[in-house]
Amino acid sequence: MIVLKEGSFLKELVQRFTDDEVPGLSAQLSYFFLLSLFPFLIFLITLLGYLPISQEDVLRTIEEFAPGQSMDIINETLAQILNNRNGGLLSFGIIATLWSASNGINAIVRAFNKAYDVEESRSFIVARGMAIILTIAMVFVIVVALLLPVFGREIGLFIFSNFGFSEQFLTIWNTLRWLVSGAILFIVFTALYFVAPNKRLHIKDGLPGAIAATIGWIVASLAFSYYVGNFANYSATYGSIGGIIVLMIWLYLSGMIIILGGELNALLYKRRKAA
Question: Would residue 25 count as lying in a domain?
């Protein structure tokens, strides 16, 4: 049994969870995540015509982490949108993605500023510009993450087959895919924790939270997906919107893990300055 001693690190982190209204901020963040999810997927899938990636590759990547019932909602919604696609869909996807995702980044900025006990002194234009640049950077990183498996698999199979190790490569590749996914998440989280707060920080100040958030998000996503797939039946309780409820809970957990990573960084920063 863990005892939370007075002044202990864990006790202070738990106190911050309550004082900084992490559950409420996570709910707010999940709302913006939901708003930006489909515009982002529209933009990404419309962009696939210019890249050696299929729609199945994108959805398979999401499916590795997303709960099953939420994937049904994502697949159905995307199918409806893409069946009515037109020439302006890419332009709409870019604009909608940048605006709605930057709203999500702004919510993250407010949560991190609260963690560091600082006010937002940057102008609206600077703050929104930073949010849009971060969004573009994350889109770029995600596209690279999707390209790596395509090219990596082909290059690996070519090299390993010349040595007669093609079967062994497939085993190694399945392990490497998880490492690549984790590395991409780590890069995204590090950028968020370094740039988003209105505080002059070093990159190393964002590393503890980025590591914790990367591991926490992967574990939480896989655990929640397993729980939904084997124990919970949200459709029995919520009917046809069961998939939406599952998606919202997953996004809520994701938002909470991101904010907790920021709280962890802020607490460690505060303790280093006080030492």
Answer: no
Using 50, 70 and 90 to split pLDDT, how confident is the model at 193?
very high
Cα 36 from chain centre: 12
Q: What is the mean pLDDT of residues 87-114?
A: 74
Maximum C-alpha span of the chain:
62
Least confident of 69-83, 100-114, 131-145, 162-176: 162-176
Distance CA(159)–CA(171), nearest Å, equals 15
Query: Does a structural domain hold residue 58?
Result: yes
In a domain, 13, yes or no: no
| CB-based contact 118:199 (threshold 8 Å) | yes
Whole-number Å distance between alpha carbons of 63 and 80: 19
Domain extent, residue 44, equals 39-274
Cα 270 off chain centre by: 26
Q: For residue 132, which of 96, 80, 173, 167 has the smallest C-alpha distance?
A: 96
Alpha helices in 64-123 (DSSP H): 68-83, 89-115
| Predicted structure pTM score | 0.77
Question: Mean pLDDT over all residues of the chain?
Answer: 77
Q: Which residue has the tokens 């914790």?
A: 212
Residues 6 or more apart whose CB falls under 8 angstroms from that of 32 comprise 100, 101, 103, 104, 107
Residue 260 confidence (pLDDT) above 90: yes
**Distinct helix (H) and strand (E) counts, the chain:** 10, 0
Residue 34 lies in a domain: no
Distance CA 160, CA 82 (A): 38
- Provide the domain count of the chain: 1
Residue 35: count of CB within 10 angstroms of its CB: 16
Q: How many CA atoms lie within 13 A of 275 on its CB side?
A: 6
CB 26 within 8 A of CB 110: no
